[in-house]
Amino acid sequence: MTKSVALFLLCSLLLPRLGFGSDHDTNKVYKDLDEALKNKEHVYHLKLTRKRYREIPKEVFELTNLRTLNLKRNKIEEIPPQIARLKSLRELNIMRNKLKKVAAELGQLQHLEVLRLGVNDLEELPAELSQLHRLKVLSVWSNLIAHLPAEFVHLKNLEVVDLQQILHKKEEQAQIKKHLPEHTEIRLSPPCKCM
């Protein structure tokens, strides 16, 4: 086999996997749910910010190839169990909503690397999030979270946890540090002298 034939075969196999030579742009960010639903199998990035959603639209869970989902600045109150359908999700941003509840099923997203839930009304996170073995960034700043589940110590790839703008006593901060891997950068506000 000649070098040019070998190169042609190699390119014809690899380029479509990288998104070249195909009709589908894996980098396109959809900003309209109706448009995304017309092309369900080829939607990888969805940004639905400032839509005034009170819940995650059920149609979002039909987009099973999603890699990033940005629902920042809505009025969403919970992450429902259906989130588990988004098996390819790598980044989830639901900052600046009204979140009070995170379904344990979020822990089933084995590819999730970045979870942004800052500026919400969360008081706790489910222990099942400790199953997110690829998680690198957990941002839950400006919530009402007093402690983290002890199981979070198993998040070995966790690089950064942001818990700023949450009132924690010095003892609570020490407990949080015990529940995270030693190498994790933990961002905390100065301890409060609250009761």
Give a verbal description of the structure.
The chain is α/β, with parallel strands linked by helices and 195 residues long. It has a single domain (22-188), classed as Ribonuclease Inhibitor (Leucine-rich repeat, LRR (right-handed beta-alpha superhelix)), CATH 3.80.10.10. The protein has 3 helices and 10 strands. It has helices at residues 3-17, 33-37, 170-178, and strands at residues 29-30, 45-47, 68-70, 78-79, 91-93, 101-102, 114-116, 137-139, 160-163, 185-188. An 8-stranded parallel beta sheet has the order 1-2-3-5-7-8-9-10. Strands 4-6 form a two-stranded parallel sheet. The N and C termini lie far apart (78 Å).
Please give the structural blueprint.
Elements: H1 3-17, E1 29-30, H2 33-37, E2 45-47, E3 68-70, E4 78-79, E5 91-93, E6 101-102, E7 114-116, E8 137-139, E9 160-163, H3 170-178, E10 185-188
Parallel strand pairs: 1-2, 2-3, 3-5, 4-6, 5-7, 7-8, 8-9, 9-10
| Helix percent band | 10-25%
Q: What is the count of distinct domains?
A: 1
Overall number of strands: 10
What is the CATH third-level topology name? Leucine-rich repeat, LRR (right-handed beta-alpha superhelix)
CATH class: Alpha Beta
Provide the structure class.
alpha/beta
Largest sheet: 8 strands, parallel
What tags apply to this protein structure?
single chain; 195 residues; alpha/beta; Leucine-rich repeat, LRR (right-handed beta-alpha superhelix); eight-stranded parallel beta sheet; two-stranded parallel sheet; 3 helices; 10 strands; globular
